[in-house]
């Protein structure tokens, strides 16, 4: 039996002074704090047996991967399958009583939270993430791989692997900035999932929460 670990890393903090939902929009880069988060993760994983570093094509993911790849002496691969989920509210502010939710034309997109109707279906996210992880496992067989992705794709695939509903309250996701969700494979089977926060002390607000299975 061959053990391989695939780490899913959420990118660091993004410079977003207008607080829009940036989704897949271009030109959203890491903030100064986000760069520090990426450096912290690089320090944390520098001595791990990571032989493959892959990132979403979005700038914030690529910038998070850069110091990690440098510390490991690896090139960065790009995989569009680990990109952020599509969302019809990209470029808008999103809140109750303001922004896009204030507009009646937006309400149709909120009709089905189980799919969800405002963006990419959860099951489509699972399919593409599992495929990217499987390829990373194959490429790093017997070692480790690190994929830089985004909160919703990481949490969705973790929920699937751990047998939870894919629909959920976003406030209960255990996937802080610059956190690592690590999948241990025994041959081609995912045997366990662990979670860690190398940059926990750098979070602008302490958002770490205890996760309770089934919550």
Automatic annotation (TrEMBL):
InterPro entries named among the record's database cross-references: His_Pase_superF_clade-1, His_PPase_superfam, PGM_Phosphatase
Record Gene3D superfamilies: Phosphoglycerate mutase-like (3.40.50.1240)
Keywords linked to the UniProt accession: Hydrolase
Keyword Hydrolase annotated: yes
Enzyme Commission (EC) number: 3.1.3.-
Enzymatic class: hydrolase
Gene Ontology molecular function: any one: hydrolase activity
Protein name: Histidine phosphatase family protein
Record organism: Tenggerimyces flavus
């Amino acid at each position: 039996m061959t053990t391989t670990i695939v780490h899913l890393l959420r990118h660091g903090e993004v410079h977003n002074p207008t607080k829009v939902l940036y989704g897949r929009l271009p030109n959203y880069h890491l903030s100064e704090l986000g760069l520090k988060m990426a450096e912290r993760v690089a320090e944390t994983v520098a001595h791990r047996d990571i032989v493959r570093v892959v990132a979403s094509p979005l700038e914030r993911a690529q910038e998070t991967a850069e110091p990690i790849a440098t510390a490991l002496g690896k090139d960065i691969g790009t995989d569009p399958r680990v990109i952020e989920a599509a969302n019809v509210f990209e470029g808008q502010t999103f809140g109750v009583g303001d922004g896009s939710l204030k507009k009646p034309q937006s309400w149709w997109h909120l009709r089905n939270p189980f799919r969800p109707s405002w963006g990419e279906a959860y099951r489509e996210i699972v399919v593409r993430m599992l495929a990217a992880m499987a390829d990373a496992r194959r490429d790093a067989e017997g070692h480790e791989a690190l994929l830089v992705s985004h909160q919703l794709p990481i949490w969705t695939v973790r929920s699937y692997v751990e047998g939870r509903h894919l629909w959920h309250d976003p406030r209960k996701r255990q996937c802080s900035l610059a956190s690592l969700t690590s999948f241990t494979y025994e041959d081609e089977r995912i045997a366990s999932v662990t979670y860690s926060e190398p940059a926990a002390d750098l979070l602008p607000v302490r958002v770490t929460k205890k996760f309770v299975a089934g919550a």
